[in-house]
Amino acid sequence: MAITPPPERVWWNIPIARTEITWIVIAFAWGLLMFSAMIYWHIEGEQNLSNESYRTTPAAFSEKANAMVEQYQVREEAGMPVVHPPPGSDVYMIARLWQWWPILEFEKDQTYRLHLSSMDWQHGFSLQPVNINLQVHPNYDMVVTLTPNESGEFGVVCNEFCGIGHHNMIGKIYVTE
Amino acid sequence: MSDFNHRVCPATGLRIHKSAENLIKANAVVAIVFLAVGGLFGLMVALTRWPGVHLLPADWFYLVLTGHGLDVLLVWIIFFEMAVLYFASAILLNSRLAGPRWGWAAFALMLVGAIMTNVAVLQGNSSVMFTSYVPMQAAPHFYLGLVLFAVGALIGCFVFFGTLVVAKQEKTYKGSIPLVTFGAMTAAIIAVFTIASGAIILVPTFLWSVGIIGNIDTLMYKTIWWAMGHSSQQINVAAHVSLWYLIAAVVLGSKPLSEKVSRMAFLMYILFLQLASAHHLLVEPGISSSWKIFNTSYAMYLAVLGSMIHGMSIPGAIESAQRARGFTNGLFEWLRKAPWGNPAFSGMFMSLVMFGFLGGITGVVLGTEQINLIMHNTLYVPGHFHATVVAGTTLTFMAATYLIVPLIFQRELIMKGLARWQPYLFGLGVMGISVFMMGAGTLGVPRRVWDITGADALIKYDYSGAAYLMMGLNGISAIMAALGGLLFVIIIVGSVLFGKRTGDKPLEGMTMTTAANYGSDEHPKIPGTVVLVAIFFTAFILYYFVNWKYLAEVWPLR
Amino acid sequence: MSDAEHSNPPDDENERIPAMQQLLDNPFLLLFLGVVMPTVFYLIWGIMEIISIPIAK
Questions:
Q1: Are B284 and A135 in contact (CB < 8 Å)?
Q2: Chains contacting C (3+ CB pairs below 8 angstroms)
């Protein structure tokens, strides 16, 4: 029994039943397939993280974000600038207690290099209802090259706990035709 | 060896040493107290997240959520695991416990640490969640309590290893250690790595909180913290799988299909399970995909292989024991005529099924590097781990407690009729919690958020009506699980205090006659188990590929 | 629970114990392996990745 020592002194040499060995082989092969799937997706799939990241500081990052806002602001909404950067450019979004700044406006099917960093604590970038979720750290600049393939109004919700105002930390991204 | 200080268990003929017995009792009792406290916190969390009820104000919600994670994920489970370690070493090996005083020192440190951290949380300035990500800062005694708790647990692990040495030297058993003890040893090995990682990160964090260290890198903190945070859940997996073998053996007299296969499956856990700490770092900046893919897949899913092996060998052992007893009609007579009225068995079997189907499959999907993008930090994550930790570990520990009360506390259960229903009530509630949170997560609802209506936010985002429905159903399920948990605490505390003494028949009504020995028939046929495993595997494949399809539909990014 | 299982014919006391069984019977060797594996592949490799993140221009 499982609660007593094995009755045989040498139990290693007892052969394994056919059903068990068959299942072990199938399960092992399934594991290899799932492992290969992740590598395959890096080659053929369209949704991957580049792992392009840099060390930065809140000051350096917000300087870049401010420069972008000054250059490409198109209007204001809820007291926040709305920015329409040119396709292909570097776009910055600041996470801080408790807002995503600024509001961004993308064009459909165009590609942007979105930079994310936090000014204070960790935050979670959660694009809704698309449901793309990224972790945002202070002192790290994460670059995501993304291509919005649908137009509309999207929410950016914070999904990493960041204190008492966490649930109010909602931003916005527009995608125009 | 001295004959003092031990009794002989009338059920098993094993010597039960007073020192081990008292430590098992103390750890189990404290565990259940913290389960009650943490469970109550959990109910308050679920009722607040039910938009129609919205029980607590924001500050209390975050406070209670921190306490919930701490008390049930860490304190209840580790205290109970200490009891399991002492049971699997001293009792099953028929031995005295090595250094019982160290065992008590461990107990005292863990208790002081747990209380200290709970006090810090309840004082209100340490609502930093269980994960306490820097640079968010808690009070110094929040971290100090965790460090003390961890040191205590580490000492407990070494009492376990010491007992293995003592039992071998004093020849209290012949040959290899029992499979259940081997599984407990797997848990203890994982615990050593877990606790060491915890110390490496929590000691500097404590020094930072009192101002001695200026800055802690957020990525570094998170990487090392999860070596503790996730591995501590791997201790649970090893512990509750061992208890599945134990309960099947005690209740049905079942015997492992193959000692070799089951032990190799545990070896896969020892070598690879802890790598899965990477599950929490899949959408983090700066860490390469090579590291992510290798670690998140437990080195090519070798630890998943271990779990899939247990998934056949445990029901297979039950089936062969039942067939040996004469339940041989059709594919499933052995399962239909299993002791479903015995809470130890029903709890264990439900736990096995829910851990496999709900926890295991979703865990692999959630831990796939790219698929994590569409699930990270949504409610899908707590949905998944309530299936592994609550349906898996907590329900198994409850089931095992129904055996510990007669065996160790030597008391009969009170309210036997209600005890029959308790695992079903709790199990169904947890199943609902898990399924509905995962459902809400796929609709984008974030975890750890007080309010999803955005009532006070400058910019709003409206979740779909289905998401609100899911949160309500989650609240109802949580009430059901809380009632099941309350019933458990009442039955166990009542039995320990007021139950009839068992005398010579501690397991009356709890076990069936021991299964016959199979003699030369080493490999009994298990057709019913093969069908169950085939159903599981089909579900796994379908769910896995469906989620790749969901991923393929979101915005391209690289 | 009974001693019935121990009534199997005794193994040959001189039969050599296979290497894998010896490994599985050695808790401290397993403890060593169980700590080294995640320390090397998860912790050390992971920390090296974090240290080598370049500084933004």
A1: yes
A2: A, B
Distance from CA of C26 to the nearest CA of B (A): 10
Residue B506: pLDDT band with limits 50, 70, 90: low
pLDDT at C6 over 80: no
Indicate the residue of B177, B217, B275 with minimum beta-carbon distance to C41: B275
CATH superfamily of A51-176: Cupredoxins -  blue copper proteins (2.60.40.420)
Closest CA relative to residue A132, chosen from B322, B32, B147, B557: B557
> A167 and B457 in contact by Cβ < 8 A?
yes
| % of chain B beyond a pLDDT of 90 | 86
Task: Check whether B523 has a pLDDT greater than 90.
Answer: no
Q: What's the pLDDT band for C4 if we cut at 50, 70, 90?
A: very low
Domain boundaries, chain B: 14-177
B455-469: pLDDT as tens digits: 888 999 999 999 999
The percent of residues in chain B predicted with pLDDT above 70, rounded, is 96
Residue B379 burial (10 A CB sphere; 0-12, 13-18, 19+): buried
Which has more pLDDT, B397 or C10? B397
Shortest alpha-carbon distance between residue B143 and chain A (Å): 18
Other CB atoms within 10 A of residue B534 CB: 12
Structure tokens at B240: 């509750």
Q: Is B556 on the interface with C (CB under 8 A)?
A: no
Q: With an 8 Å Cβ cutoff, is B558 touching chain A?
A: yes
Residue with tokens 């009729």: B417
Cβ separation of B377 and A133 shorter than 8 Å? Answer: yes
Condensed to tens digits (0 to 9), the pLDDT of residues B19-32 reads: 899 999 999 999 99
AA letter at A97: L
What is the structure's pLDDT at B137?
Answer: 94
Q: Which residues, including other chains, have CB under 8 Å from residue B438's CB and lie 6 or more apart?
A: B362, B379, B380, B383, B384
CB neighbours of B125 closer than 8 A, spacing ≥ 6? Answer: B138, B139
- Residues B207 and B314 sit within 8 Å (Cβ to Cβ): no
Among chain A residues, CA nearest to B369? A38
CATH topology of domain B14-177: Four Helix Bundle (Hemerythrin (Met), subunit A) (1.20.120)
Is the full-model pTM beyond 0.90?
A: yes
Interface of B with C in 129-168 (CB under 8 A): 161, 164
Taking an 8 Å cut-off on Cβ atoms, the answer to whether A32 and B301 are in contact is yes
Q: Please name the residues between 88 and 147 in chain B that touch chain A, using a CB distance below 8 Å.
A: 92, 129, 133, 135-136
Residues of chain A with CATH 2.60.40.420: 51-176
- Write down the pLDDT at residue C15: 81
Give ipTM to 2 decimals: 0.95
Interior CA angle at B220 toward B215 and B222, to 5°? 105
